[in-house]
Write a structure and sequence with these properties.
The chain is of the alpha+beta class and about 100 residues long. It is about 20% helix and about 35% strand.
Length: about 100
């Protein structure tokens, strides 16, 4: 899938399949360590053609994942990644907003 709406507590993900609410998942954000984060699906929705994410594969669903950090250390490690993503997105004019 493709990550979107990255936040301090979770992430939205575009997928090509439905994942039911309350399903435990693991999310890996591509970066140097490719750390996997445990999470829980808090919502899952199909979206319309007007909202379609354009990619090689059809992404018909969007899910919201709330992270379940195993420790404060893991949470802080994620927050460092999140802050880095914010800085990188801010350096690309008119592309991303946090």
């Amino acid at each position: 899938g493709f990550a979107s709406d990255v936040g301090e507590e979770g992430v939205g993900v575009y997928l090509n399949l439905h994942i039911p609410r309350a399903t435990p998942v693991r999310v890996v954000l591509e970066e140097e360590t490719n750390q996997a984060y445990r999470g829980l699906v808090i919502w899952s929705r199909r979206f319309s053609m007007e909202q379609r994410f354009h990619a090689q594969a059809v992404q018909d669903y969007r899910v919201g994942v709330q992270f379940l950090f195993d420790s404060e250390t893991e949470r802080q490690r994620y927050l460092m990644l999140y802050n880095d993503l914010q800085k990188r997105a801010a350096s690309v004019p008119n592309q991303f907003k946090f």
